[in-house]
Design a protein that fits this description.
The protein has 11 helices and 11 strands. The protein is α+β, with helices and mostly antiparallel strands. Strands 1, 2, 3, 8, 9, 10 and 11 form a 7-stranded antiparallel beta sheet that branches. Strands 4-5 form a two-stranded antiparallel ribbon. A two-stranded antiparallel ribbon has the order 6-7. A hairpin with a 2-residue loop joins strand 9 and strand 10. The longest helix is centred in the last third of the chain and has 22 residues. The radius of gyration is 21 Å and the shape is globular.
Length: 411
C-alpha cells in the first residue's frame, strides 16, 4: 500500500482544474462517434491539400446532412467553450418561448451578470420581445440577453439543468454546463465534437438558423430609439479584416481569456453544408476564422472525396442509438491535456490514486513544455484569487447605446 501525505493529496487536488479531461465515455471503452475520434493527431483518410499549419488545440470538420466526420484533431478534448456554449442554450430554450412574448427588464434582472461579460445593452425599464433578446444572443453574444431569457425560463439554475439534460440527449458527453452563457467558470467544458453536435442540431430549427445567419439589425435603445448591432461572426459580417466566406450560414463565435478564441461555423456550397469547429488557435485574433475557412475550403474541395473517420451521433430523443448505453455523463478523472492518452476512470485503492497523482504531474509538465505562457488567459480559478475577471472580446455597448468596436485583446 502506498501512503500519501495530506500535502501530496492537496497538491493533486490543486492540479485537477488545470487539466482538461477526455470524455467520460472513454473510461467505459466507448468513444462517441467512433474510435478514431479519441486518437491523438490529425484523423483523416485523405490528407491531400489538408491545411498543415493549423494551430488550434482541437478542431473538427463534418458534413451537416450525413453527420460524417471528414477530419478531426483531438475531437473529444475537453476545453473551455466560451460563448459557443450559447448554441446549447439556444438548442434548449428556443422552442419554449414565443418570439412575440414581451418582457420588461429590471435592475435586479441584470444584477448577477459577471463583470467583463459581453453585452448587447439591455436597459432597465425597457421592454423587449423574445425575438429581440435572441438577436442579442446570436449577434452580439449578449450575456445580459442570455440572463433575461434564462429568467423567463424559470431561472438560471433551472436553465443550466435543462442544458445539461439537453447535452445528454444529444450524446454530448464531453460537456459540463456551469452557466448559460459560456462565461469562464471552473469545470465548464465542452469539445469540438460536442459543439459541432450543438450546431448541427440547432440548424434544423428555422429560428436558430435565421438568428445565426442575421448580419445586422436595429436594436431597441429605449423609447423609440434604436442602435445598429452587427453579428460578431467575422466570416459572416466581413469585419476586422476578414473576408466574408462564400456560402456562410453562421453559427457562433466566442472568446474569453481562458478559453481563447472559439468558433463553430457552417457554410453551404452547391447544395452541400459543412460544419467546422475550431478551438483556441495559438495566435492572432483572426486565426480562428482563417483556420475555419481553410478547413471549409478543403472540405468543399479535395475533402469531398474523403471517407469519414467518425460520425456525429443522433439525439436519443430522435431515435439515435445510444453510443454508451450504461454510461451517464460524468466528470472523467484527470487525463492528459491534448496528449491523446485517453481518460482514466476513477480507480479504487491507493494504486489508483498513485496513477492519478502521477498522471496529474505528467500533464502539468507536458502543458508547461508544449503551451505558450498563459499570461492573461491563465487558469480562471487562479486569476479570480487575484481579483481579476475573465474577459471577453465580444463587444460591449457604450452607455449611450452605441456599440464599442470589438477589442482585439482581453479587456
Amino acid at each position: 500500500m502506498h501512503a500519501f501525505s495530506r500535502r501530496s493529496l492537496l497538491s493533486f487536488t490543486a492540479l485537477a482544474p488545470l487539466t482538461a479531461a477526455l470524455p467520460a465515455a472513454a473510461a467505459t471503452g466507448t468513444v462517441i462517434g467512433g474510435a478514431r475520434l479519441a486518437r491523438d493527431g490529425v484523423q483523416a483518410t485523405l490528407t491531400t491539400g489538408l491545411p498543415n499549419k493549423l494551430t488550434a488545440r482541437a478542431w473538427l470538420l463534418a458534413d451537416h446532412d450525413t453527420g460524417e466526420v471528414l477530419a478531426s484533431y483531438r475531437a473529444h478534448q475537453r476545453l473551455a467553450p466560451a460563448s459557443t456554449l450559447k448554441m446549447l442554450f439556444a438548442d434548449t430554450l428556443l422552442g419554449k418561448l414565443e418570439r412575440t412574448e414581451r418582457y420588461t427588464v429590471t435592475d435586479a434582472d441584470l444584477a448577477d451578470i459577471p463583470s467583463g461579460s459581453s453585452l448587447v445593452g439591455l436597459k432597465p425599464g425597457a421592454t423587449y420581445t423574445v425575438e429581440q433578446l435572441w438577436q442579442g444572443v446570436f449577434l452580439r453574444s449578449g450575456n445580459d440577453a442570455v440572463h433575461v431569457l434564462a429568467l423567463m425560463n424559470g431561472g438560471v439554475a433551472k436553465s443550466v439543468a435543462e442544458m445539461q439534460a439537453k447535452a445528454a440527449d444529444l450524446q454530448a458527453l464531453d460537456t459540463h454546463v456551469v452557466s448559460c452563457d459560456g462565461y469562464d467558470h471552473t469545470g465548464q467544458l465542452s469539445s469540438a465534437y460536442d459543439l459541432t453536435l450543438f450546431a448541427r442540431h440547432g440548424l434544423k430549427d428555422a429560428d436558430f438558423r435565421a438568428y445565426c445567419s442575421t448580419k445586422a439589425v436595429d436594436f431597441p435603445a429605449g423609447g423609440r430609439k434604436t442602435f445598429r448591432i452587427e453579428n460578431t461572426d467575422r466570416l459572416l459580417s466581413g469585419t476586422y479584416g476578414v473576408t466574408p466566406y462564400e456560402g456562410m450560414i453562421g453559427v457562433k463565435n466566442g472568446y474569453t481569456s481562458h478559453a481563447g478564441n472559439t468558433f463553430t461555423g457552417a457554410a453551404t456550397r452547391d447544395g452541400r453544408t459543412l460544419l467546422v469547429t475550431v478551438l483556441h488557435p495559438k495566435s492572432g485574433n483572426n486565426a480562428v476564422y482563417e483556420e475555419t475557412a481553410a478547413l471549409l475550403d478543403w472540405g468543399f474541395g479535395k475533402g469531398s472525396s474523403a471517407a469519414p473517420v467518425g460520425k456525429l451521433v443522433e439525439p436519443l430523443s430522435e431515435g439515435g442509438a445510444s453510443a454508451s448505453p450504461s454510461a451517464k455523463p460524468r466528470e472523467a478523472a484527470v487525463a492528459g491535456e491534448g496528449d491523446g492518452s485517453g481518460g482514466w476512470g476513477v480507480t479504487a485503492g491507493a494504486g489508483g490514486a498513485l496513477a492519478l497523482l502521477a498522471s496529474g504531474a505528467y500533464v502539468l509538465r507536458k502543458r508547461r513544455a508544449a503551451d505558450p505562457p498563459e499570461g492573461a488567459r491563465g487558469p480562471v480559478h487562479m486569476r479570480l484569487r487575484r481579483g481579476a475577471r475573465p474577459a471577453t472580446t465580444d463587444p460591449q455597448p457604450a452607455t449611450n447605446g452605441t456599440p464599442h468596436p470589438e477589442p482585439d485583446t482581453p479587456q
